[in-house]
Amino acid sequence: MTHLNAMVNPNSNREHNTFDIITNRDVEFQHSVISIESIKSQEETTDTDWIFDVTDKYTCIWCDLAVCEIPNSNWENAVKACNNNVILCTGKKEWILLEDRESYTIEIEGKKRNVWIGKIITIDDVIQRTCLKNMFTEEGKKTFSYTDEMDETNIIYARCKKSMKLLDPIFREHVIDIEYEKDMVYAIKSVAGSGKTTTLLKLADVNKDKKILYLAFNRAIVKEIQSKRKNNMTCKTFDSLIMQHSNINGRITNLTPYTFNEIYPWLKKRPFKMKQGFIDKYNKFCKDTKSIDMKEFIKLNYRDSSDFTKKHLNTMWNDTLEQKFITFDALKKLAFISKSMSCLDDQYDMVFIDEAQDFDPIMLDILLRDTTIPKVFVGDPRQAIYEWRGAVNSFDNLPYDSHVVEFYTSFRIGNPACEEIRGSFEECWMTAGTDSKTMIYHHEVPGTNYHYLFRKWRSLLTCATEITNIWINDFDNQRTKMERLHTKLQKYKMTKEEQEDEEDDLPKFLREMTEEELADLMNSIEDNLVHKEDAEVCMYTIHSYKGMEHENIRIFNDINIEKEENLYYVALTRGINNIYMDTNI
Predict the structure, then answer these.
(1) What pTM value is reported for the model?
(2) Cβ-based neighbours of 40, under 8 Å, separated by 6 or more
(3) Is the dihedral of CA 509, 515, 521, 523 positive or negative?
(4) DSSP string, 335-369
(5) CA dist., res. 49 & res. 41, Å (int)
(6) C-beta contacts of 310-317 below 8 A and 24+ residues apart
């Protein structure tokens, strides 16, 4: 690096080459360590600007932000002591003005770095901002006018509290301002309570000239967004979208060993397990994104199965093609094979995919493969809790060139709870966006109305017999289902696959009870039930409470925290004012 003193116009009236006697200003060009005392001493006598040489350090640009890796702790503290301009000489065309002297931890291309984040300026800006404008020679300007440019990076991520506070509003503005182009895939990883629905509605409003399709896995979420939707938004579940674009004449079949008997009476006396096996293999084919032909699928997955099994699986799929019976999974498979959803390009200008952390794998492939309209995926990867239903986390399956940003600010959860939650999960980048306090209590019972969350129906039902003035979410429907399941369990054993299809251990719980014991349990609960508006305690399973919130949340201690970390996160992030834990966090 050429020394700055050699690049200025010598003047006998100046005490040294970088001091401008006219303005009483100086420029100090730093190559090595400097003490804070030296900086203070210099600035006591002279109005000094500071240029730090970072030509051999990592630098990059994201949007309008210039990033420079901090060389050492000495300079990290030194720049904070400087009162005037602090400028970084990068050895590139772009120089960096540090208006913000804070250091930040960010992640760039998979690597965490301790950095300064500043404003991009040119050599002309440097000259005009400092006393160099009165003393720089043309040779000096030419020497410091570099030709190489700083590299641009696709995205940076906040990895400390300070960087989350800095970058969150920038990312939110970026999502709204970006020009969404053909084939673009944009994804927003949005922490609990960060206002993702508000963002989608705002994005729809900004793009009011575009026709937008809003998709979600859950019917309740679609219903909620419909009540707030913009005129240019069409809201649908995956299943309703597929139904709309299918040519199915008959009704949809819920394929179980019992309905299986109606379709294939000649298999009625065959073992229950055999029929369930056929159904499981059929469903696996419908959800498989690699095979479009049943024979090919059998060859890849069930080569050693009996000829009878292979023949009947082919029969089942041929019957589906002839519409003798059809399931929702089969509908999606047919759309996948025919590429019929490419018609969405003619009907819409954009598509929003909400709760993208729990997405249908076939639908994901259909959207990415068969449509070119811009796609915006929104969700919280930590809230992926439906893998047991066959859902996939879209964020793990997006194209490599997707644009992925993160929202860190939760407007639901205040401190100190937000700090405690962030510290309880590895790589949990969440910060409080409200000044209101949210408290976490352990082994305490709320003294006011609250919502009580359970991992298992067994736990919910047991507690419901012991607490008065309660309301249970969807209880009438659940009671009917439980009574039917209990009757079924008295006659048949559930297969392993059927048990896995349940969200908890309810079948085992019901199987342990007689009909009279079940009736007594339900009657005891009925004695404690009141209307929702009169209830002191509202009871939900965690799965059913996803996307909801309340001032006071209580969490029962039936979550396997090590194995069900995401479910635990969902429960913890529902509370606004108070979170009561029946166990330690």
Answers:
(1) 0.89
(2) 81
(3) positive
(4) HHHHTGGGGHHHH-SEEEE-STTSB-HHHHHHHHH
(5) 14
(6) 312/278, 313/278, 313/281, 313/282, 313/285, 316/278, 316/282, 317/282, 317/285
Please state whether the peptide bond connecting residue 416 to the residue before it is cis, i.e. omega within 30 degrees of 0.
Answer: yes
H runs (alpha helix) in 108-266? 123-129, 138-143, 161-177, 196-206, 219-226, 238-244, 257-263
Query: How far apart, in whole angstroms, are the C-alpha atoms of residue 392 and residue 280?
Result: 18
Residue type for 80, please?
Answer: K
Tokens of 501: 């299809």
Kindly report, residue by residue over 352-387, the tens digit of the pLDDT: 999 999 998 999 999 999 999 999 999 999 999 988
Residue 388: DSSP 8-state: G
Contact criterion met (CB below 8 Å) for 214 and 232: no
What does the block give as tokens for 8?
A: 């200025």
The span from the CA of 481 to the CA of 523, in Å, is 16
DSSP string over 519-530: HHHHHHHHHHB-
CA angle 358, 385, 452 (to 5 degrees): 130
> What are 259-309's pLDDT values in tens digits?
888 999 988 888 888 998 999 999 999 999 999 999 999 999 999 999 999
Q: Among positive and negative, which fits the CA dihedral 350, 368, 338, 312?
A: negative
Burial classification of residue 346, based on how many CB atoms lie within 10 Å of its CB (0-12 exposed, 13-18 middle, 19 or more buried): exposed
* Cα–Cα distance for residue pair 565/502, rounded to 1 Å: 19
